[in-house]
Amino acid sequence: MKVAIVGGTGAFGRALAKRLHETGKDEILVGSRDAERAQATAAELGIAGGRNQDIVAEADLVVLAVKSDATLETGRELAAAIGTTPVLCVASDLRFAKDGVLPGRHQGSLAEEVARIVRGPVASGLQSFAAANLVEGDPGDALICGGQDRAKELSLELAGRLADRAIDVGPLENSRALEGMTAVILNVNKRYKAHAGIRLTGLP
């Protein structure tokens, strides 16, 4: 599978690209608005890189790994280049308050909004993963939601390379819960100085 990681020069995107490249299963492309920055990161990782518009045009799966406040703008910018290619959105809309990290919205999710912007199918997942967990190789279970379509199929396949279990957690609307769970994990990490992940019990 050819995987284009939009935002591949950021902390999470870079860790994701590194881990996937190490599995040797897929061809990984890292992207940025700045082609030189993408190419420099790609060279360090031993993979290919370029402008976001260029890498998504070649991909079987596009991973939107930009910061949450740039997710929708990036989706709009790349919608034409992405075309009908499946998309995996890994972002969470969060609000940082003096008492801790909170979900950023009361209705809907970033992934649902991305699905209204791009033409292809959209899945959501990996919100419980931190860059450090990916680097250390112990991220917990990989939770993926979406329609019964190519986006979920490819996202589950990809997630299975990152974790012991890739788990289908239902329709795209459940991204609201996954994105909200990011706030929970960040609060736990801050309180206990950890890099927490999620494991579901009772599954074979």
Which features would summarize this protein structure in a list?
alpha/beta; single chain; two-stranded antiparallel ribbon; 204 residues; eight-stranded mixed beta sheet
Care to describe what's here?
The protein has helices spanning 11-23, 35-45, 52-56, 71-82, 110-117, 131-136, 150-162, 175-192, and strands spanning 2-6, 27-32, 48-51, 61-64, 87-89, 94-97, 100-103, 122-125, 142-146, 166-168. With 204 residues, it is of the alpha/beta class. The chain has one domain (2-192): NAD(P)-binding Rossmann-like Domain (Rossmann fold), CATH 3.40.50. The strands form two sheets. An eight-stranded mixed β-sheet has the order 3-2-1-4-5-8-9-10, sandwiched between helices. A two-stranded antiparallel sheet has the order 6-7. It is globular, with a radius of gyration of 16 Å.
Largest sheet: 8 strands, mixed
Number of domains: 1
* SSE pattern: EHEHEHEHEEEHEHEHEH
Unreliably modeled segments = none
How is the CATH topology named? Answer: Rossmann fold
- Give the CATH class: Alpha Beta
Helix content: 40-55%
CATH superfamily: NAD(P)-binding Rossmann-like Domain
* Quaternary assembly: single chain
Shape-level CATH architecture: 3-Layer(aba) Sandwich
Structural class estimated from helices and strands: alpha/beta
The radius of gyration computed from the alpha-carbon positions, rounded to a whole number of angstroms, is 16 Å
How far from one another are the termini?
27 Å
